[in-house]
Amino acid sequence: MKNVRKYAANTFWLFTERAVQLGLGFTIGIWLVRYLGPASYGAYSYALSVVGLCAPIASLGLDAILVRELIRHPRQLGWWLGSAFYLRLLAAASLIAMLALGLPGSSITTELKGMILVLSFSLAAPAVGVIDSYFQKQVASVYTVQAKVIALLCSSAAKVLLILMQAPVFYFALILTAESVILCLVLLFNYRRLGESVRAWRWYGPVARKLLAAGWPLWLTGIAIAAYLKVDQIMIQHWLGLDAVGQYGAAVRVSEALFFIPAALTSTFYPAILAAKEQGETPYLKRLQFFYDLMIWGGFVISVTLWLAGPCLMRWFYGDTYLAASQVIRWHTPSLWFVFMSQAASRWFLAEGRQRALLVLHAGGAVANIVLNLLLIPQYGLQGAALATVLSYGVAAYGGHLLWPAVRPNLRLLNRSLYLPGAVKRLSKFNLER
User: Fold this and answer.
1) What crossing angle do the helices spanning 260-279 and 281-318 adopt, rounded to 10°?
2) How far apart are CA 353 and CA 406, in angstroms?
């Protein structure tokens, strides 16, 4: 019963943070979208997409690997956290330098270049973010939630002030970078509250090499995922302009606002899945199957609800200025279900040490997304971009399993969960203590 309360409390805090983000951040975000208008919001979204493509490069794919190694080596905390910190710091510095050198030669506007460069400094945040892996290992996400909520409150207040002052879009990019700084500071403070100190972090070559060796497939996987999350807006700008990017970004914002649910559930249950694997194959598979059942059918219910309510929500949130966005939302919403499925399926790959196979699946999804965008955007516009996203997510989450015999064990788990009567029966009887 103690474990049940621990996992439930962890999930509660993760959902609390996202509830605050939805209630406050999303509300102010809607105000921001309406204030900026499609063209300026399109520029803002474009800058976020460019930096978003760089974000997984800065993280080096170490999150899940670091949680696993901290569980396995609790007495070597300083080596693992320190090595991950310095690796990410080096990656962020390299990316910032590359953007600073490359942007002057690009054809985009000076304002866009400035926004991208300012936002690029937020790429250093994942270095301090290694602390979150420690909190995940402790199943103590309350400390990360506190940091995110404080940073969100500060940035939200600043955004309101800027809107009231009718500030130009560039200053909102500054606020996002400042938010990442505040987040890092509070994470460091909470880490110290637990009696830990960053002074104990040490660079240790063998540990760094092990992190890179284990993490590079996830690193490339993250880049592939970012590609089919962000590349569509970059391609829309090329063919349809910044106004269209603003319309599409407004629609995507609504469905992607719920991506926190699979992420929160995964952060909570992944340590439990790893712990069960240490106990034996039977408890491991039972816990993994429960997780798949929960994610797939929970995601299905949420996706259908948003599909039904999406157009009305769009018109209510954004008004007639974003009429094109209300026509896109239903095309994009099914991608949410595949995000739930993908988040669940990826845990088997990580627990089994099959990061390379996971990379191949997501790389296939990224390639499919780029090819489909090339084919569909010129002919079908924003709806084509949304359809390309859904199909590519489906390739990465499920379709790729059908073509690769080596991952058939995971496909069997997914297929069992897709059978609703069996999933309901298992969910009703499962006990986390087992």
Assistant:
1) 180
2) 13
pTM of the model: 0.79
Q: Is the dihedral of CA 215, 220, 223, 228 positive or negative?
A: negative
* 186-224 per-position pLDDT tens digit: 999 999 998 899 999 999 999 999 999 988 887 888 888
Domain assignment present for residue 434? The answer is no
In the chain, the largest separation of any two C-alpha atoms, in whole Å, equals 60
Query: Is 111 a domain residue?
Result: yes
144-156 burial: b if 16+ Cβ within 10 Å, else e: bbbbbbbbbebbb
377, part of any domain: yes
Q: How far apart are CA 47 and CA 43, in angstroms?
A: 6
**CA-to-CA distance for 411 and 398, rounded, in angstroms?**
8
| Helices and strands: H and E segment counts in the chain | 18, 0
Helical segments of 280-354, H only:
281-318, 323-332, 335-351
Intervals of the chain under pLDDT 50: 1, 433-434
Q: How many CA atoms lie within 13 A of 183 on its CB side?
A: 24
R_g (Cα) of the chain, nearest Å: 21
**Nearest Cα to 37, choosing from 163, 217, 189, 183?**
163
Separation between Cα atoms, residue 98 and residue 137, nearest integer Å: 34
Rounded to whole angstroms, how far apart are CA atoms 342 and 259?
11
**End-to-end Cα distance, the chain:** 10
pLDDT digits (tens, 9 = 90+) for 32-80: 999 999 989 999 999 999 999 999 999 998 887 898 888 888 888 899 9
Q: Give the count of domains, the chain.
A: 1
Q: Are 87 and 62 in contact (CB under 8 A)?
A: yes
CA distance 290 to 424: 10
**3-class state of residue 199 by DSSP:** helix
Based on the number of CB atoms within 10 Å of its own CB, is 279 exposed (0-12), middle (13-18) or buried (19 or more)? exposed
Question: Quick check: is 210 in a domain?
Answer: yes
Domain, as residue range, for 319: 2-429
